[in-house]
Amino acid sequence: MKRSDEYWAQRAKKEGYRSRASYKLLQLDEKYNLITKSSLIFDLGCAPGGWSQVIAEKINVSAKCIAIDILNMQRVDKVEFHQIDLFSNEFKDMMNKNSKCVDLIVSDISANLSGIKLVDDENNFELNLFCIEASKEMLNPNGALLIKTFNNSKLKEVVNKFNDVFSTVCVEKPVASKTSSSEVYLLGLIPK
Ligand SMILES: C[S@@+](CC[C@H](N)C(=O)[O-])C[C@H]1O[C@@H](n2cnc3c(N)ncnc32)[C@H](O)[C@@H]1O
Hints:
- This protein is an alpha/beta fold and 192 residues long.
- The chain is built from 6 helices and 7 strands.
- The longest helix is centred in the middle third of the chain and has 22 residues, at 117-138.
- The structure holds S-adenosylmethionine (SAM).
- S-adenosylmethionine (SAM) binds next to helix 2, helix 3 and strand 2.
- S-adenosylmethionine is lined by residues 18-19, 21-22, 45-51, 68-71, 85-87, 108-111.
């Protein structure tokens, strides 16, 4: 049953999650079992840390999570945080260093809103494209990419790009995602 938007915020507070976003990843992971089987995970756009907390709870002892954001993030145990921009040279270095050996990339990144819908849609589209390019460089042959995108005029193009890159593509709207938000999540499995 669909819970109210307020429900997830209150539950996050009670259960010690930094954001209600944690439940979106928990629900997606419950369906697709992405985290436990992964040895190397990247969490892109991780602040304030709700998704990193979920990953830290679920990863194996020997697994590693690297998280990045332009904003600072309070430490999450078991997560290596870097305060960098996705488009920076530092991230490009990370891509090269982790070429073809990443199991899972998750991105909850969304652009800072300008208030102009066309501009915001374009900025989010650029972020989505960058994540897809990064996944081509970084994922191993069994890897997976999970990104946030939006149900707007660009969605079809983003889904088409996913279909070019992945053997299986799923579009999801987790129950914890605000009903009023146009956000949806795309999951690509098995790079072609
Ligand atoms: C919705 S929040 C992520 C919430 C997070 N998943 C959680 O559970 O706490 C989106 C994040 O994307 C980050 N972001 C936006 N543009 C970015 C960029 N170019 N590089 C890195 N992070 C970026 C923002 O700073 C923001 O913290």
